Amino acid sequence: MTGKTDAELIESIRLDGSERAFRELYGRHTPRLYQLVLRILAGGAADAEDVVQETWVRATTSLARFRGDSSFGTWLTGIGLNRARDFLRHRSRRPAGFEVDDGDAWLERVSARVDDTGERVDLERAISILPDGYRVVFVLYEIEGFNHGEIARRLGISEGTSKSQLHHARRALRVLLEPSSMRTALEANHG
Amino acid sequence: MDNRESGMYHDADSWELTPLIDTLPREDEASDMLEERTVRALRAAGLLGRRRIARPWFAGAAAAAIALFASGLAIGQWIGSSNATSAMVAQHNANLQQTAAVVERAGNAYVQALSALAESPQSRGSADAMYARETALTILHQAANQMVRLAPNDPVSVNILQGLDQANPRTPDRRKPRRVIWF
User: Fold this and answer.
1) What is the 3-state secondary structure (H, E, C) of B58-77?
2) pTM of this structure
3) B12: which chain A residues are within 8 Å (Cβ-Cβ)?
4) Measured between alpha carbons, how far is A155 from A78 in angstroms, rounded to an integer?
């Protein structure tokens, strides 16, 4: 560790192509980026690593455009988020994934499967089985700390959609984590 | 960052999830191989290590360009300086001196040849003597012509040329218009 700031490391990479500076910057920001991508993809480590690598290549290519208006970590997270969403689109072969679909039907199917198998899921597992749209908004809002305005801008959706997705995500998580609450939740929703 | 907002979904979201969320890790370690393959990809794309290789070439090229520019500037300044002008005048003068020396050597040879011709016993009456005299007069006429061109107001040169034309009507260019331009 050289003790240099992110800005100094970025300058070394831009001007000198410094591998040492890159490795230090990589070491600082990859753990958080990797965890974020891993959660959003809800997939295996291999997929997450592919996305993280692509994120760094894209970020390094675009370093000249980084003006320091936000922190480097925030800027990198934005690139990683876009790469992860591209990955999800290709994986699901659907163009979006952020529309409010029939959440109740999905919730009933998943809850039934949990009841049948007797599987007890922790929060991490529950997040991973959320629909893509629910999961991305939930992760960004509840874990990464973005507000709905920021999420709407980053994902290209309305703030209303972001709030709605978060609501569905929380309700789904409640059912997944407390299967006995399934009937109460659905009845309240239909009532 | 406190992003919790009240709103239309507040009641539905009243289930307390925050303590669970706070237990989730924010970071995770990727494999060491990821760092290595990312670095390799960046090297392959020319984004890492590129300028360490390029810098000596760039620095050399820049130094050469600066040296070339400085040399050109120095030459320009030298040409523009009075010393350079003096040098050029000196070179011009040197050329004139060289030309004068050539004229002198040729004139000496001409006079020596005429002297030898005059001292020759066969210089009178023979066809060769007549040919030598004609040649000498032609050369003297051409020389006088060039002298008039060189110094149109020089009366000596003008009189020599006029005297030759009058004394020797068979001078080769006697019928031709005079090439002397009088001012």
Assistant:
1) HHHHHHHHHHHHHHHHHHHH
2) 0.59
3) 167, 170-171
4) 10
Is residue A97 a contact partner of residue A88, using CB atoms and an 8 Å limit? Answer: yes
For chain B, the residues whose C-beta falls within 8 A of a C-beta of chain A are 1, 3, 5, 7-9, 12-13, 15, 17, 20-21, 23-31, 34-35, 37-39, 41-43, 45-52, 55
Instruction: Collect all residues of chain B within an 8 Å Cβ-Cβ radius of residue A22.
Output: 39, 42, 48
**A16 with B28: Cβ contact below 8 A:** no
Comparing CA positions, the residue from A99, A185, A86 lying closest to residue A137 is: A99
- What is the ipTM metric for this complex? 0.84
Per-residue pLDDT tens digits for A144-189: 999 999 999 999 999 999 999 999 899 888 888 876 555 555 555 5
What is the number of alpha carbons within 13 Å of residue B63 lying toward its C-beta?
A: 6
Q: What is the pLDDT of residues B13-53, one digit of tens each?
A: 556 788 889 899 999 999 999 999 999 999 999 999 865 44
Q: Which element (helix H / strand E) includes A29?
A: helix A19-41
A177 and B41 in contact by Cβ < 8 A? no
